[in-house]
Write a structure and sequence with these properties.
It contains 4 helices and 12 strands; from the N terminus they run E-H-E-E-E-E-H-E-E-E-H-E-E-E-H-E. It is mainly beta. Strand 5, helix 2 and strand 6 form a beta-alpha-beta unit. The two termini are 16 Å apart.
């Protein structure tokens, strides 16, 4: 008997669960969140089995998120200062599974350290890509740049320039929907996995987008974004813990 899927869990600014025995620890610093609306029909074929596009008022989103990974490490061991610290830019989608767990799905993750790229691809089958990258500050302006090396497509790039504005005291429903994500959906050896995470509530700032030149979204198999992003945010960052992956089945038939 196939169980009916559960309603999506509420969007909460604080994690609905803890991570008493974390698998991974890291910090995400100097984050730029850029988002464009996209039709759920374009997204659905790109998601892992057992998940569907997560929507707000019938719309889902593609996110371009640039940041600095800082001291990524295993379990509760101290994070690695060099190999575990590097710029990263990801293209992500929004998903929900039959148990109602909301998450993100990564279509690409550009990173500037080859060893973490190789580990991410080998251990979790995540679409990590080795790229030349930099994050630079000039007062309230932050510039993120990347140019893809391997495995390609070579030359796929992005350049994002933000001017950081005032602190967001009360995030909108959309801003919570796009940032308050407490897990990742992926597929490993043909099986769907959910990897939970937890971190303090996001400190968010409004941001003015001064420049955005990118082709990472198209390289990730998505339509080219039309117009300016509907949401542009900045965060100084948070410490993050990832829990153990869950393989419990949901109620959505797996195609």
């Amino acid at each position: 008997m196939t169980l009916a899927p559960l309603a999506p869990e509420p969007v909460t600014p604080d994690p609905p669960h803890g991570t008493p025995n974390p698998l991974l620890t890291q910090s995400w610093l100097d984050l730029a969140f850029l988002h464009w609306p996209v039709h759920p029909g374009y997204v659905a074929p790109l998601l892992p089995p057992g998940t569907v596009p997560d929507t707000l008022d019938g719309v889902t989103y593609v996110g371009l998120v640039a940041f600095r990974m800082h001291r990524a490490g295993w379990f509760r061991l101290p994070g690695v200062p060099y190999l575990g610290s590097f710029p990263e830019t990801n293209v992500r989608l929004y998903s929900v599974d039959a148990r109602g767990r909301r998450g993100v799905v990564f279509r690409s993750l550009d990173a500037s350290r080859l060893v973490p790229v190789a580990l991410g691809r080998a251990l979790f089958r995540l679409p990590y890509v080795w790229s030349r990258m930099a994050v630079r500050h000039d007062g309230a302006t932050v510039t993120y740049s990347s140019s893809r090396r391997l495995p390609g497509p070579r030359g796929a790039r992005s350049r994002i320039v933000l001017r950081v504005g005032d602190r967001v005291e009360e995030p909108t429903e959309l801003e919570h929907f796009l940032t308050a994500r407490w897990g990742m959906h992926t597929a490993l050896f043909g099986r769907s996995l959910y990897l939970p995470n937890s971190h303090p509530r996001w400190p968010l700032h409004r941001a003015e987008l001064l420049a955005c030149e990118e082709d990472l979204v198209v390289a990730a198999g998505l339509p080219r974004p039309v117009g300016a992003p509907v949401s542009v945010l900045y965060s100084p960052g948070v410490p993050v813990e990832f829990g153990r992956p869950s393989r419990r089945p949901g109620g959505v038939p797996t195609p």
